[in-house]
Amino acid sequence: MSAPCLNQDLVAQESGENSVPSSPVVNSTDFTADKIREAHRKSHQGFSSDELILQDELRDAFLQELGIDPNQESQFDRQRAALRALLQLRKRGDLNVPTTQRSSEASESINAAIPTAEIAIRTVLDRHDAMIDDVLCDPRMRNELQEEAERLSKGISPETVRRAVLRLRKSRRLRPELVLRVADWDRSVTTHPMKQLNLDSLPNTPGVYLFRDSTGYLYIGEAIRLRDRIGDHLRGSHNAGLASILGDDATNPVTLELHAFPNDSPAKKLTVRRAYESELIRSRHPRFNLQP
């Protein structure tokens, strides 16, 4: 009897210039459970399936066992499907391979990377309306994760970032915010280094804005006109703590993150923007906001 095929449905991504390109459907017969188990058995070197996802060397060996070139862009969709199939088997408890090895990376280095990892993963998740497994399995989003982390902490190890992301998930610090699960308002998420900010290029639509640096989130606010509100902060923020940080941007570069909505969306209502803002403050703990 042939081995069962794993469901390869891929999560749809948001459209837009920052989105991962939409992918063709990968033939589910490419990755039967038996093929995935065999490739895992030959490549895992005693490590867990999580480690296989995290470590470039193990992941590449697993993909090569399946005939996938991990560096070939034309095979990125097959790569994502294969890794997600592996995670499906793990979640079903269907790998049946003992774990005999553990990562040697010090816990201290992972903990130190958590502020950077949290901002980077939330930025990518917000941008693509994705799940954490999607980011770790999709090479395009995985690269975006590292790019966002590098903006905050130059030279940070990609593997350390991914480990910190998993630690955040296991500690339940990355649970989806309620408002993001129920709101479908054609949201646009963009990031803007404050040193290079062109105020005129910002949307003047309703939304929420977040200031952040390498230590974490600094301040979250809402506005009916985002560009005008950011201009107010640049001329002299009413928040003394944020004003001191913005005035010392050269020491620890600040990034502006915008969640912008169309003028005719529900976000034009103050109560809706406040709900969105409060949810982000509650989950992301910005330094200079009062917790709702």
TrEMBL record:
Alphabetical list of InterPro entries matching this protein: GIY-YIG_endonuc, GIY-YIG_endonuc_sf
Annotated Pfam families: GIY-YIG
Q: Which residue numbers delimit the GIY-YIG domain?
A: 204-290
State the protein's name. Answer: Excinuclease ABC subunit C
SUPFAM superfamilies linked: GIY-YIG endonuclease
What superkingdom does the record give? Bacteria
